[in-house]
UniProtKB/TrEMBL annotation:
Keyword Cell cycle in record: no
Matches recorded under InterPro entries: PepSY
Signal peptide (residue range): 1-18
Gene3D superfamilies per the UniProt record, alphabetical: 3.10.450.40
Keywords annotated in UniProt: Signal
Name recorded for this polypeptide: Membrane protein YkoI
Domain of life the protein comes from: Bacteria
Organism per entry: Pseudochelatococcus lubricantis
Limits of the PepSY domain: 34-93
Amino acid sequence: MRILAFFLLFTVMVAVVAAPQAGERERLPPGIMSASELIGLLEAQLGGEIVEIQFDGRDKSGRPAYEVYHVDASGRRTELKVDARTGRVLKRETDD
């Protein structure tokens, strides 16, 4: 029963984090994908689940980027730096 309760709580938390915020598109600079657009793209490419996403401003090379946390089917968590214009993964760091 505790496992089911934890799973339901986790699912609700992910839904809240992933839900587009009111006015999300208006707050982003022109040409930047919204968080909800990027989540759809990454989950289709990578499988698994996006558990956290945050617009990170610009990466070291000046590109607008998102910081994304992804969990694959085996439960491995990976931190991604993703180009906010194209959705291309720029950097990956997987937890051991």
